[in-house]
Amino acid sequence: MGQSNLICSTQPIVAHAGDDVILSCRLDPPISASSRTVEWTKPGLDPEYIHLHQDGRLVYQSQNPLYNYRTALFVDQLINGNVSMKIFRVKTSDAGKYKCFLPSLWKEAFIELKIGQSNLICSSQPIIALAGNDVILPCRLDPPISASSRTVEWTKPGLDPEYIHVHQDGRLVYQSQNPLYNYRTALFVDQLINGNVSMKIFKVKISDAGKYKCFLPSLWKDSFIQLTVENKKDHDKGPEEGTGETELLVNRQENMEDLDDEKLKERVEEKSDMMYAISVLTERKNEHEHHRNKLMSQIQRVETERTENEKKLHQQQNIMDVPALCIRLLTDVSVLLVVQLYHSCFALRADAAFPSVSPNRLQHFEYETFTVNCEEFTGLTEWRVMRNLQTPITPAVSDTWNTSASSCSINPSFKQHSGEYWCEDAEGRTSRAVNITVTDGSVILDVPARPVVQGHDVVLHCLKEKSESELSADFYKDGSHLGTRYKGAAMTIQNVSTSDEGLYRCEISGAGESPESRLAVLQRTEDTHPPVSQPLNFLSLLWTVVLVAPLLLVMGFCLSWKDTGLTKQSEVIYRCYEPDVSRDGTETRVPDKRVYSSVYYRPLTPD
Fold it and tell me: How many domains, in total, are found in the chain?
């Protein structure tokens, strides 16, 4: 078999600070590098590893912290021999010589990266404009580089707020703009690609005069430009004519402009209030329509039942006698008694429960074993574990799942097993879900699977795979840094409250960071226990007495009625049907399993 050479670009790669750049290298003739180790290093740097691709993934532990989250290989193109590396948001310090090395082939090649500098140049001469006209404050990048994906900030020092126009992520950020410049500024968006960052101000006012600053954070470049605004009448008359009258007109114009700004601001606020009121009224209207439709449906159902009952009563009124009526009443009371006993014994509150997870945490390493359990749930029907995966399960791991089981162990676990897990019974009642994450990284956050009760303490541990030593770790909540723990990599939150809810993650220097998981907090009024069969309480006993008393009276009345010559009885028969559920272990959710109760009334001949 012929040898394959590693070829990188012989010409230096030139990029500008803040841009993304590709250091292109390939195997020629092409052979697959999918299962090979690819090492990108920068000689002279400590540690020198920029990107180490091994066993199909990046080895975070060996990567230089200066390049964390800023490098990537084209993994889908490794099979074609493309081992190029992409560096995101290039810095000036990234300039230098890089080395690509494949140990299995003992091939290496070098490539040089240069960081080009571009200056921000604005007009050195003051820009003069007439009040009421439009004006352009010219600024450009020289040599020209694209500013399409960069943040461009135009400010006026001394103004509060000072932001005149902030262009970020391809659009104007209205929230930071000074209200005096609302709807009066614009950039030449189609020319940003050529480095033109000039700003246009519409209908210039006397108060717009002053010094303006243009700033590009990604290049850390700024420049200033002066704007002078003249009154039109002063410009037409010249400097020597009507000085006193001109000053009076200028003052009047400024007062009118301030008044117009105040009126515009009031109208904008009124419009905002009206839009909010309209949204609230629309929401309430939809709620009222929903309740109305529901009520109309209930009324229609009651009317239908009433009509059917009237027909049945009309058909039976000629043949109905007192003993038959007694039997009917006896049967109805018996049914009510049985229903009351059923609800007293098997009332479930599935919406206030969570499945049990062992080990009790939301994050797990790949190849670990974890179990989701619904055996704490009780009732007349069986509970089973259900889940909704973030990614489809591969055939190689599909045999680890059974949707009809009350307990499910994932062994071994893979990243594809990440998703929501919950419990569900045959009648469609579900528990609350827990969001389990399986990561192929080296760090996880030990956060409880079940919510923490308000007022309790909770301890969060930052765990590194296959490491029992005590490491320091940084903890974050909703992207904000909470602090650093130096002993045992654990953080304790005392007297937990609802304000502690959020997305938590942790980071161990040199090892990487964990995924994010939500810490949920339950108020004390919420039921944190799984639904169980409740014993008969005093209220249930009272209901039983209330129902049994009329039953005994009706039985005595029926037995005392002897003029008809025969006694009619009724028998209540209860039958339960539970459809079979497939247990073939497929990954699709099984159809809803229902438990039906049927009641038959059968007249019996007297003994």
Answer: 4
